[in-house]
Amino acid sequence: MALDTDMPFPDIERRFADMHTASRTSPPWTKAERTALLRKLQAVIASTRGEFAAAISADFGTRAHEETLLAEVVPSLTLIEHTVKKLGSWMAPERRPTALTFWFGRNRIHYQPKGVVLIISPWNYPLQLAVIPLAAAIAAGNRVILKPSELTPRTSALLKQHLELGLGADVVTVATGGADIAAGLSALPFDHILFTGSTAVGAKVMAAAAPNLTPVTLELGGKSPTIVHEAADLEQAAGRIARGKLMNAGQTCIAPDYALVPRARTKDFVAAYTSAAATFYPRVIDNPQYSSIVSERHFERLAGLLREARNHGARADIVDPARELPSMEATSSNTRKIAPVVLTDVTEAMGIMQEEIFGPILPVLPYDTLDEAIAYVNARPRPLALYYFDTDRARIEHVLQNTTSGGATINDTMLHIAQEDLPFGGIGPSGMGAYHGREGFLTFSHAKATFYQGRLTLTDLVRPPYGARFQAIMKGALSRTAAGRGSRGLS
Ligand code: NAD
């Protein structure tokens, strides 16, 4: 493959060219080879998990080691385990029925590696959002260039060190660096790109991939709503919403962004939510289990959204049980921490209702009827996740059928992402395509449709010169369709 020597990263481009050549000249990895690579990946993550927890915490300022274990290490290891167990059945050629006309032929789908794939990952869960797509790509037999986020540099350096050493740089090369590197990489003719990050950058990746016709999987963000029905157990719902919202201080793509609560119950909901938050985090500033906001820029954005909302009349209930902050203050700039906040009396004009919050601030919006809450969600961009709390099965199905989101969890938050057999992905502005489990394998595989002609076949009878025999066969073929029944060939 010809190299463009003007590229800002010649080493990576050379590695891409080598991987490209290897993917076209060597046989696809066997199940045993893929399994061995997945086991190596598992061993690397298991043996370096403490190092990763420390690096992620240092990158954030504060990030609970427990959250790294819960939300990065365990999901990565269990999804790899699931993949190893299922790999044989996923890789096997799949039988499909053959229409009568094509008897005695056979149909099969062969799953083949796409070749060389690019994975671009964000900072918020920098280990699992790199490792889980990587595992899926390897399971499908691909070589990978991984570009982790520049906002978590210690973690990205560890990924480079351990993945290249553990799996071989010919299997996975980690390209560290900034957005310029990511943009340059996404313009290379990869066989697939999986991008996780913001909707705005996702659109740039898709545009960069277009001239090469490189297929893209986009795992994006957005405002994921939570609807609480009046029949729900309010305290339980508020506690589960708080647990989901405040993990990683709200810096989670599927965190509940805002809550729609029956008007008569909003006060009780705010009280239950703040009380649950105070139980989870008896201290917020001096608490190693409560995350900092990842960067100065992200901290200032959140502080600005909060300030603007309060200046325009929103009421803020701040959770600061140990009184570590001055009265009415929610932010601590030297630790980059923001206390859990509930906002009421918000308006649509406020920035907090216009962009993905990605922080520990929960706007609570009152609604009068369930259909009004559904209409509110449907009038906005399709979200990555939706949460609904209710006890009535028929109403739950009604909400699921009448809203469209990437995924959903009923009577809890975020847990659909933890299901190893469910696909994970968005829709429209929250993403396209999916991975996790079998869908991860399929995303990085080409499904090659193959027809094997039989020794005996009717199709040899369909040939020029077209005469009476041809007309009879066509009549038979048409008669198998509702619209063609009773017709006579062309007439
Ligand atoms: P981001 O879009 O700013 O950056 C993500 C990655 O894209 C980084 O590695 C960055 O270097 C790279 N990048 C930057 N400019 C680029 C360009 N022009 N071309 C190619 N790549 C480029 O996102 P972020 O701030 O790191 O992450 C937060 C966002 O990600 C939120 O919107 C969140 O909802 C979303 N997210 C989605 C998921 C999901 O699974 N759907 C998971 C986590 C985060």
Strand order of the largest sheet: 10-13-14-9-8-15-16
Shape: globular
Spatial extent as radius of gyration = 26 Å
Number of helical segments with 4 or more residues: 14
> What name does CATH use for the topology of the largest domain?
Aldehyde Dehydrogenase, Chain A, domain 1
- The level of helicity is 40-55%
Low-confidence parts? none
Give me the secondary-structure category.
alpha/beta
Question: What's the CATH class of the largest domain, please?
Answer: Alpha Beta
Q: What is the total domain count?
A: 2
How many beta strands in the DSSP annotation?
18
- The assigned CATH architecture of the largest domain is 3-Layer(aba) Sandwich
Q: Describe the main β-sheet briefly.
A: 7 strands, mixed
What does this structure look like?
With 491 residues, the chain is an alpha/beta fold. The protein is 41% helix and 16% strand. The longest helix is centred in the first third of the chain and has 30 residues, at 31-60. It is globular and about 90 Å long. Strand 8 (225-228), helix 8 (234-246) and strand 9 form a beta-alpha-beta unit. The mean pLDDT is 96. It starts with 9 loop residues before the first helix and ends in a 12-residue tail after the last helix. It has two domains: 10-220 and 436-447, 3-Layer(aba) Sandwich (Aldehyde Dehydrogenase, Chain A, domain 1); 225-425, Aldehyde Dehydrogenase, Chain A, domain 2. Helix 3 packs parallel to helix 4 (128-139) and helix 3 (65-91) crosses helix 13. The structure holds nicotinamide-adenine-dinucleotide. Nicotinamide-adenine-dinucleotide is lined by residues 120-124, 129, 147, 149-150, 179, 182-183, 186, 196-198, 201, 204-205, 219-221, 253, 356, 358, 384, 426, 431.
